[in-house]
């Protein structure tokens, strides 16, 4: 795809300073810019590169005034970083704007779908599935019976969505995701053997949810496992049965959340965090990477460690952790001098 500076400025509501007809066909970092590429300058420490780069078009803030002659055409906007992000979103929208049904695809006679859908080769669409308008189902996706998927949602190649799952509008499901597999429910008998507890619930993803590659979200034992509007999950996360995650919470890779835990709104959870089951985590909580959460957490707490403690207390304690060998030596010397 190729765009002129004038076309890009129109998308971003920006102002062209230079040749409006210069064309670009790829994106680049400002320090690696080549002819035909588009880049941006938002961080002042990268300003020297604007005089060296060979990028054809550069997005800058409106208040930027060059101190040397430039070879590039500028597009001036209110916020260069935000504008570049907007352009990336537009680029992805154009790139992923596939339509039509490839062959072979299996679509149940009882399934329905809206206009402008895309069904990639070897996709399976089960009984009573409902797909909204402009839904994109990439190759080798499995969608089980009675699944609903809202308009403008994208399901990338190889994802598996089990029966009864409900997915809202404007969601993104990346490759290798499994939604709706059985929760880990077993009960021991008198002989120490484990019997499976049937998992009869489902998974509900509200609008504008992103699920990273390789993430698994288990169906509920009863009721629903729920990800509220705007939740963002990184790659390789495990969400167990009957978990509920509040609006606009973000979770980094390799985090595991055990069954029936409820997480509030606008939380930020770092990578490799482990969270036990049947607890409640409040709103706006921040949990540092590799922490272990084993208790209820109040609103606005910041935590670190395993088991996790208040972030400030952890930092103070860590000073002593590092000095423990030296402190032990001092104690041993004191005891020795006292004849103990």
UniProtKB/TrEMBL annotation:
InterPro entries: Hexapep, LpxD, Trimer_LpxA-like_sf, UDP_GlcNAc_AcTrfase_non-rep
Catalytic activity: a UDP-3-O-[(3R)-3-hydroxyacyl]-alpha-D-glucosamine + a (3R)-hydroxyacyl-[ACP] = a UDP-2-N,3-O-bis[(3R)-3-hydroxyacyl]-alpha-D-glucosamine + holo-[ACP] + H(+)
This protein's pathway: Bacterial outer membrane biogenesis; LPS lipid A biosynthesis
A GO term, aspect molecular function: UDP-3-O-[(3R)-3-hydroxyacyl]-glucosamine N-acyltransferase activity
Statement: the UniProt record of this protein carries the keyword Chaperone: no
Key word Endoplasmic reticulum present: no
Keywords: Acyltransferase, Lipid A biosynthesis, Lipid biosynthesis, Lipid metabolism, Repeat, Transferase
CDD domains: LbH_LpxD
Domain (UDP-3-O-[3-hydroxymyristoyl] glucosamine N-acyltransferase non-repeat region) ranges: 22-89
Active site (catalytic residues): 241 (proton acceptor)
EC number: 2.3.1.191
SUPFAM superfamilies linked to this entry: Trimeric LpxA-like enzymes
Family annotation (HAMAP family): LpxD
Subunit annotation: Homotrimer.
UniProt record similarity statement: Belongs to the transferase hexapeptide repeat family. LpxD subfamily.
Entry function: Catalyzes the N-acylation of UDP-3-O-acylglucosamine using 3-hydroxyacyl-ACP as the acyl donor. Is involved in the biosynthesis of lipid A, a phosphorylated glycolipid that anchors the lipopolysaccharide to the outer membrane of the cell.
UniProt name for this protein: UDP-3-O-acylglucosamine N-acyltransferase
Organism: Robiginitalea aurantiaca
């Amino acid at each position: 795809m190729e765009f002129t500076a004038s076309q890009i400025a129109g998308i971003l509501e920006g102002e062209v300073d230079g040749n409006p007809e210069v064309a670009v066909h790829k994106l680049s970092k400002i320090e690696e810019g080549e002819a035909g590429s588009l880049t941006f300058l938002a961080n002042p420490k990268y300003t020297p590169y604007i005089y060296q780069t060979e990028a054809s078009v550069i997005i800058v803030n409106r208040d930027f005034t060059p101190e040397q002659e430039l070879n590039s055409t500028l597009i001036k906007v209110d916020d260069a970083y935000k504008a570049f992000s907007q352009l990336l979103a537009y680029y992805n929208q154009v790139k992923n704007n596939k339509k039509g049904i490839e062959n072979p695809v299996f679509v149940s006679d009882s399934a329905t779908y809206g206009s402008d859908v895309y069904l990639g080769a070897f996709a399976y669409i089960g009984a009573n599935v409902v797909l909204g308008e402009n839904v994109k189902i990439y190759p080798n996706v499995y969608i089980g019976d009675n699944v609903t998927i809202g308009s403008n949602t994208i399901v990338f190649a190889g994802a598996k969505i089990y029966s009864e799952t409900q997915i809202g509008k404007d969601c993104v499901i990346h490759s290798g995701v499994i939604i709706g597999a059985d929760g880990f429910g077993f009960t021991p008998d008198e002989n120490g053997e484990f019997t499976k507890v049937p998992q009869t619930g489902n998974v509900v993803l509200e609008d504008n949810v992103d699920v990273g590659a390789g993430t698994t979200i288990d169906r509920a034992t009863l009721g629903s496992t729920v990800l509220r509007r705007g939740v963002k999950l990184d790659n390789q996360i495990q969400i167990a049965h009957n978990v509920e995650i509040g609006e606009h919470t973000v979770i980094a890779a390799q985090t595991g959340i055990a069954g029936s835990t409820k997480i509030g709104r606008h939380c930020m959870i770092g990578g490799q965090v482990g969270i036990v089951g049947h607890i409640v985590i409040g709103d706006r909580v921040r949990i540092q990477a590799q922490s272990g959460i084993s208790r209820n957490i109040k609103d606005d707490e910041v935590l670190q460690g395993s088991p996790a403690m208040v972030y400030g207390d952890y930092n103070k304690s860590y000073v002593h952790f590092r000095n423990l060998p030296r402190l032990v030596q001092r104690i041993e010397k004191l005891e020795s001098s006292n004849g103990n």
